[in-house]
Design a protein that fits this description.
It is built from no helices and eleven strands. It has strands spanning 3-7, 10-13, 18-25, 34-39, 46-51, 57-59, 67-72, 77-82, 91-97, 102-103, 107-112. The strands form two sheets. Strands 2, 4, 5, 6, 9, 10 and 11 form a seven-stranded mixed sheet that branches. It has a four-stranded antiparallel sheet with strand order 1-3-8-7, with no helix packed on it. The chain is globular, with a radius of gyration of 13 Å.
Amino acid sequence: QVQLAESGGGLVQAGGSLRLSCAASGTIFSITAMAWYRQAPGKQRELVALLTSGGSTNYGDSVRGRFTISRDNAKNTVYLQMNKLKPEDTAVYYCRDIQHSVWGQGTQVTVSS
């Protein structure tokens, strides 16, 4: 059974940085595409960043150039480095195992102006 556990969310001022982590278990992590999504209050869940097993990346337009997705296969962990945060980045951030369509429980990120 695939399980994902996010961590690293919190409260930060605009312009600051946070790094989210997502630890995976129950999967052959190295061959699985992973992604980060986010959902703000009253809005649909949206793709933030995706990373394939081969290292290809895709970013949402609103975060491209500020956020970076990466993975450590030895630790079964995917990261989201978020820089130059804006109040509009405030949301619950979810990790997703694309292959198994499994979601983590989410971690709250709040950016104050």
